[in-house]
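Q: Here's a chain of 316 amino acids. Please give me its 3D structure as tokens.
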Amino acid sequence: MATKGTFDKDSKKMRELSLKRVALYLATACLCIALFWAISRKPRDVVTPSLPETSPPIPRQIQYSFTLQNKTNHLLKKAEFWTYAPVKQTSTQLCDNIKSSHPYKLITDDLGNHVLHFTLNDFPPYATKIIQIKARVLLSDKPVTEAVRDIKPYLKAEKYIESDDPVLFNTAKKLTASSNLKTAENIFRWVVGNVRYAGYLSKERGALYALSHKKGDCTEFMYLFTALCRAVKIPARCIGGYITKESSILKPGYYHNWAQFYEDGAWRISDPQNKVFMKENSNYIAIRIIKRPQDNPMLQFNRFRVQGEGLEVKMN
């Protein structure tokens, strides 16, 4: 038979257990209220960007080759050759595979440029070597958002992009509209309507040349559009590469320059020489973002670089 003392002890334990449960329920409720308050206090004017709906990636295979020849009558102990492969990633492009007939070292600079470095030892006199490169790129018709660590370099004046010139600045200012996108379109249309294609020019002349002479090749069209954008604080950059609607073998004469401007979190294509603005994205394969960062071994060379006495190179 249970005694009175036993009942008292059991009753006390039950009260203690009930109190602990109540405290646990209260703590959980407080935590939920605190979380709800924290979420509801998030500033409503802050919009978190999201990736836009994108079209399925379009695979494209490209290949190109170079002929290297030792023009001397002696053995080259060490010959070196550098060239570009498709840019690692842009708002409309992803390079996911690179193959070559010869071993290489892959170098990726701060801009995402892919540089292939070949070392050829014991190159016989008068001998010829052919380096073949194949790459697979995934292209998109719709640009995706692309974070830029530092946008300032794409707003500055530099060689061939004389955005700080007073005449160029005044021209850009007259084209300013209510939004950056409309301003960029105005600049594009102005360049298309006022600059004449003069055929291939072997030397770069830059934005001011195109503005003053109203003529140039694709390079000058690119530089002028970029400079006019930068003059009115629209980030813009220069691109070198190829236009191809299908997998193909790239030839040196197909090389082309165009511009990109940064709008709504993505790089947008502007090719005034071909009258293409923000369309046909999957036809453009970027081989080079034209800027010379300190970690790029190509130095001042645009398409390839070679080192070795008497060594000559040509793209096939």
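Q: Can you summarize the key feature?
A: Residues 4-40 form the longest helix (37 residues).
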